[in-house]
Amino acid sequence: QVQLVESGGGLVQSGGSLRLSCVPSGNIFVINYMGWYRQAPGKQRELVASLTSSGSTNYADSVKGRFTISRDTAKNTVYLQMNSLKPEDTAVYYCNVMGFSRSLFNSWGQGTQVTVSS
Fold first, then answer.
1. Which pLDDT tens digit goes with each residue over 37-58?
2. Distance CA 111, CA 108 (A)
3. What percent of the chain has pLDDT over 90?
4. Edge-to-edge, what's the strand order for the sheet holding 67-72?
């Protein structure tokens, strides 16, 4: 079972920046999909940004131009660079990675809290 370890969340003032990291454990042969999702209190989990193995990216309209998803292939690490943060970005952020290790996997991170103060 591939486990994901997230880091980088915290408290930041409006207009500030944070970078989230997500590192999968184990022997990963192929990563097909990487995504960041978030869930605010009382709301459903939503896609923030995704990146496929072909390099295609997708962003929620609310974060376009402010957030960037990227990957360090050598480290199998996926990042979410968040700039110009707003209070409405406050949520628990989850990493999702799909690929092939000993078998196909679809793993989620434990979540990291991002709080943006006004």
1. 999 999 999 999 999 999 999 9
2. 8
3. 89
4. 4-7, 18-24, 77-82, 67-72
